[in-house]
Write a structure and sequence with these properties.
Blueprint (H helix, E strand, L loop, with lengths): L49 H7 L8 E2 L2 H4 L4 H16 L1 H23 L8 E4 L2 H17 L8 E5 L4 H12 L4 E5 L8 H15 L6 E7 L11 H10 L4 E5 L11 H4 L3 E5 L11 E5 L21 H6 L7 H4 L1 H8 L5 H24 L13 E5 L9 H15 L1 E2 L2 E3 L12 E6 L6 H16 L10
Parallel strand pairs: 1-10, 3-4, 3-5, 5-6, 6-7
Antiparallel strand pairs: 2-8, 7-8, 9-12, 11-12
Helix pairs in contact: 3-4, 5-6, 7-8, 13-15
InterPro entries: Aminotrans_V_dom (IPR000192), PyrdxlP-dep_Trfase (IPR015424), PyrdxlP-dep_Trfase_major (IPR015421)
Protein name: Isopenicillin N epimerase
Pfam family, one: Aminotran_5
C-alpha cells in the first residue's frame, strides 16, 4: 500500500492552506489539540492484519529476535517503496525536482509534523538529519552567546547524567570550549518514582546558581536512552521557568511515536525528536521545534549553504546535494500508521502495554526487577539480568550483547550499573527491550531462554574476555 509522492493527505491542513512558494501556513488556534485522523473505516476488518504486518517487515533478518527498535527504528516496505519513488524522481530530472518539488514536499512534511506535535505554527518546525544535528544547532547558538559576550564566562548549561553520549560531547565541543560551565544532574537507577528525578533536578539547579552563576540552558531528555526512563519533562520545564533558567531544550530522540509529545503542554523552547526511531520513517529524519517567542532567528544549520539567513527551516531544507527522500515520505508514513486501530496513539498504547508485559515476564523468569515503574516507561523498559552472569564493566556488556546475537540470535542492548559503595551481589546488568508492531512474544521468550541457558551452564562474562 505504497503512497505516491503525488498524493496529498489531509491531517489538520487542507492542501489549499499550504503556501507552496513560501514558508508559512495559517497559525493553529492555541486551544487546538490536533490528532492525525484515521483515513480508514472504523470497522476492525479495515485495519492492517498480522500477515500484512509480517509482509511490511519481511526485509528484517528472520534469524534475529529484533527487540532493539530503540536504536535504529524500522521502516515498512510500503514506505521504502514511496522513498524509492522520490529518489527516482530526483534522479530522473534533478533540476526540475529541486526547483519545483523539493521545497513543496518538505513543507508538506513540516505541516504534518506541526499538527502531530501540537505546535502553534509551521515556522516553528524544521526538519534535520537527526536529534544529534538538532542538538548541535541549539548548542552552537549557546557557543555564540559566549563568544559574542552575551553570556559571562562560567555561566552554565545543565544536563542530566543520563544525557545521550553525543549530546554530552556536543556540550563539551560547543559550550565548555567557549567558556561555559556544565552542571550534571545525578539520577538514581533503578528509579522508583518521578519525584526522585525532580528532587535531584532541584538540587542541581541550586548548585548551578551558586556564586551568582546564570543557567543559560537546561538540556533535558524526554526518554533517556541507557538506562531508559521517561523523564517528567513538563514538571522540569516548569521548575526551570520558576528558577530563572533562560532556555530549555528537550532532547527527545525517542519522542515521536514512543511517548506523548505536545509542545503546548511541555512548554520548552526547543524540542528535537527523530522520526526514524518510532515513527517508521527511513533513516534519517528528525524534527527541531523552536518556539517562536524564543531566539528563533539566532539559530542556524551547522552546514552553511546559500540559504543561510533565510530562517532555520529553509536553511535545513537545503544543505547541498544529498538524498532528501526521508524528509519527503512523512505523508506515506501517516498513511501507514493510520492502517492500525487508533493510528499512532493506538500503536503507542499497545507497544507500552506489551513491553511492560514482556518486561515483567523476564523479571519473573530471572528473579530480578524492572528498572522503573511501568508508568515511567514508554515503548522500552529495563530488566535486571541475573547477577551470576558477572557483568562488571562496560566491556562485559558489549561482549555479552555480541554473544547473545551470534550464539542465540537475539539483539538487545545491555546497560552496566556501577555498584554503589559497599554493594555486593547486586544486579549490575540490565537488558533494554523495545516493543514495536513487528515484535512477537516469541522474540522475548528467545531472550529469556538464552539467558536461562547461560545461567544453567554456569556462564560468566569472564569467559568472553579470555
Amino acid at each position: 500500500m505504497a503512497s505516491s509522492p503525488h498524493n496529498g493527505h489531509g491531517h489538520g491542513h487542507d492542501q489549499n492552506h499550504l503556501e507552496l512558494n513560501g514558508d508559512t501556513t495559517k497559525a493553529h488556534p492555541a486551544s487546538k489539540k490536533p490528532r492525525l485522523s484515521l483515513s480508514l473505516s472504523s470497522s476492525s476488518s479495515s485495519f492492517i492484519t498480522e500477515s500484512e504486518i509480517r509482509s511490511e517487515f519481511s526485509h528484517h533478518d528472520p534469524g534475529i529476535a529484533r527487540i532493539n527498535n530503540g536504536s535504529f527504528g524500522c521502516c515498512p516496505s510500503s514506505v521504502i517503496e514511496a522513498q524509492r519513488e522520490w529518489q527516482m524522481r530526483f534522479l530522473a530530472q534533478p533540476d526540475a525536482f529541486y526547483l519545483n518539488e523539493l521545497k513543496k514536499g518538505i513543507l508538506q512534511s513540516r505541516t504534518i509534523i506541526t499538527d502531530l506535535i501540537n505546535a502553534d505554527h509551521v515556522d516553528e518546525v524544521s526538519i534535520v538529519d537527526n536529534a544529534t544535528t538538532a542538538a548541535a544547532i541549539v548548542l552552537q547558538q549557546m557557543a555564540w552567546g559566549f563568544t559574542d559576550g552575551k553570556f559571562h564566562r562560567g555561566d552554565a548549561v545543565l544536563m542530566l547524567h543520563y544525557a545521550y553520549g553525543s549530546v554530552k560531547k556536543s556540550i563539551e565541543a560547543y559550550v565548555t570550549r567557549a567558556g561555559g560551565h556544565v552542571i550534571e544532574v545525578p539520577l538514581p537507577f533503578p528509579v522508583k518514582s518521578g519525584e526522585e528525578i525532580i528532587t535531584e533536578f532541584k538540587k542541581a539547579l541550586e548548585r548551578g546558581k551558586a556564586n551568582g552563576r546564570r543557567i543559560r540552558l537546561a538540556v533535558i531528555d524526554h526518554v533517556t536512552s541507557m538506562p531508559c526512563v521517561v523523564i517528567p519533562v513538563k514538571e522540569l520545564v516548569k521548575i526551570c521557568r520558576e528558577e530563572g533558567v533562560e532556555q530549555v531544550f528537550i532532547d527527545a530522540a525517542h519522542g515521536i511515536g514512543c511517548t506523548d509529545v505536545d509542545m503546548e503542554e511541555i512548554g520548552a523552547d526547543y524540542y528535537a525528536s527523530n522520526l526514524h526511531k518510532w515513527f517508521f520513517c527511513p533513516p534519517s529524519i528528525a524534527l527541531l521545534y523552536c518556539r517562536k517567542s524564543s531566539k528563533l532567528s539566532d539559530l542556524h544549520h551547522p552546514v552553511v549553504s546559500h540559504e543561510y539567513g533565510n530562517g532555520l527551516a529553509i536553511e535545513s531544507a537545503w544543505i547541498g546535494t544529498r538524498d532528501y527522500s526521508p524528509q519527503l515520505v512523512v505523508p506515506s508514513v501517516v498513511e501507514f500508521v493510520n492502517r492500525f486501530e487508533g493510528g499512532i496513539e493506538g500503536i503507542k498504547k499497545r507497544n507500552h502495554e506489551q513491553v511492560v508485559k514482556m518486561g515483567k515476564m523476564l523479571a519473573k523468569a530471572w528473579e530480578t526487577n524492572l528498572g522503573c515503574p511501568p508508568e515511567m516507561c514508554a515503548s522500552m523498559i529495563m530488566i535486571g539480568l541475573p547477577a551470576c552472569l558477572g557483568i562488571s564493566c562496560e566491556k562485559d556488556t558489549t561482549n555479552l550483547r555480541t554473544h547473545l546475537r551470534e550464539k542465540f540470535g537475539v539483539e538487545v542492548p545491555i546497560y552496566y550499573r556501577i555498584p554503589k559503595n559497599g554493594e555486593t551481589g547486586s544486579i549490575t546488568g540490565y537488558a533494554r527491550i523495545s516493543h514495536q508492531v513487528y515484535n512477537k512474544e516469541d522474540d522475548y521468550v528467545k531472550l529469556r531462554n538464552a539467558v536461562n541457558k547461560l545461567v544453567s551452564d554456569g556462564f560468566t562474562c569472564t569467559l568472553l574476555s579470555q
